Amino acid sequence: MREPLPRDMFDPACPSSMVPFQIGDKWAGMVLVCLADGPRRFSELRVPMYRVSAKVLTETLRALERDGMISRTAYDEIPPRVEYAITDLGRTLFPAMEACRAWALEYLPAVEQARASYAQRSA
Amino acid sequence: MREPLPRDMFDPACPSSMVPFQIGDKWAGMVLVCLADGPRRFSELRVPMYRVSAKVLTETLRALERDGMISRTAYDEIPPRVEYAITDLGRTLFPAMEACRAWALEYLPAVEQARASYAQRSA
DNA sequence: CTGTATCCGACACGATACTG
DNA sequence: CAGTATCGTGTCGGATACAG
Questions:
Q1: Residues of A with CB below 8 A from B6's CB?
Q2: Nucleotides of D under 7 A from a protein CB
Q3: What digits encode the pLDDT tens for the residues A86-108?
Q4: Can you tell me whether residue A74 is helix, strand or coil?
Q5: Do the chains contact at B34 and A5, CB–CB below 8 Å?
Q6: Do A22 and B50 touch (CB under 8 A)?
Q7: Phi-psi region of B90 (alpha: psi -120 to 50; beta: other; left: phi over 0)
Q8: How far is CA A25 from CA A76, A113, B32, B123, in A?
Q9: Cβ-Cβ contacts under 8 Å for A36 (sequence gap 6 or more)
């Protein structure tokens, strides 16, 4: 017997409804990976994430800081130095991220194949 | 000893770089959950996903179909009937989705707390 | 160096009307 | 019923210039 659908996929009582917004951020995962084995400076992060503008990287870092995923430490020096570090809470995301990574590794070829087949059928 | 950062987080050779786009879709996960225990019609899906317009739901379904996550079956009847079903490939996403769900369940309270603390500090 | 301010274009999305 | 077409709006994000 098939269950009826839930009435409301956006029910605030269901924490999963927040998943797309909470851990679905486009660049947050990359930042966390970059911080995995030690604090990094803003300019250090800009290198591997060169496709993201300074503005968006800043916004991403602020959001991660606000949510307790990373910490921001500004040193009173000239020139200024700021270091971002992942928090314990931030590290708790790694298992879920690893699950996503493992999925991509295993099934991306199948997805490519499905896309090719779909393009074929559409043509 | 700390590893140097990767040079390019967007390296196409790394399947993980596709994760934000492949499984980071805002509504795809909800659709798959809705299809978990049987095929559903378009209008059935609209109910729990009432915040998503027909246009966007259609786009989401098309993308999922293109990627081989769901199948679309149109019956030649009047009035028309179309059924969407999850594929075996689509089901392979569930473990990763479950990992995200479990994370949200466990750590969302900590995030809320971090947000409150951040708001406090900013005030 | 680590950002912020401003402008602007592209695109995502909803609302509405319409079709087979 | 299951969409598509069109339009208007809002947000995302890059580029550039500038500040502390």
A1: 34, 48
A2: 1-6, 13-17, 20
A3: 999 999 999 999 999 999 999 99
A4: strand
A5: yes
A6: no
A7: alpha
A8: 31, 27, 19, 26
A9: A86, A94
Q: Is the CB of B101 under 7 A from strand D?
A: no
B82 strand-pairing partners: B74
- Gyration radius of chain B's alpha carbons: 19
Decide if A22 and B104 are in contact by the 8 Å CB cutoff: yes
What is the residue-averaged pLDDT of chain B?
A: 93
The residue type of B54 is A
The beta-carbon contacts of A68-71 under 8 Å, at least 24 apart in sequence, are: A68/B110, A68/B111, A68/B113, A68/B114, A68/B115, A68/B117, A68/B118, A69/A28, A69/A32, A69/A93, A69/B114, A70/A31, A70/A32, A70/A35
**Alpha-carbon gap, residue B82 to B70, rounded angstroms:** 13
SS3 readout for chain B: CCCCCCCCCCCCCCHHHHHHHHCCCCCHHHHHHHCCCCCEEHHHHHCCCCCCCHHHHHHHHHHHHHCCCEEEEEECCCCCEEEEEECHHHHCCHHHHHHHHHHHHHHHHHHHHHHHHHHHHHC
**Closest nucleotide to the alpha carbon of A46, via C1':** C2
d(CA A19, CA B93): 15
Provide the residue-wise pLDDT of chain B in tens; the chain has 123 residues.
677 888 899 888 888 888 887 788 999 999 999 999 999 999 999 999 999 999 999 999 999 999 999 999 999 998 999 999 999 999 999 999 999 999 999 999 999 999 999 998 887
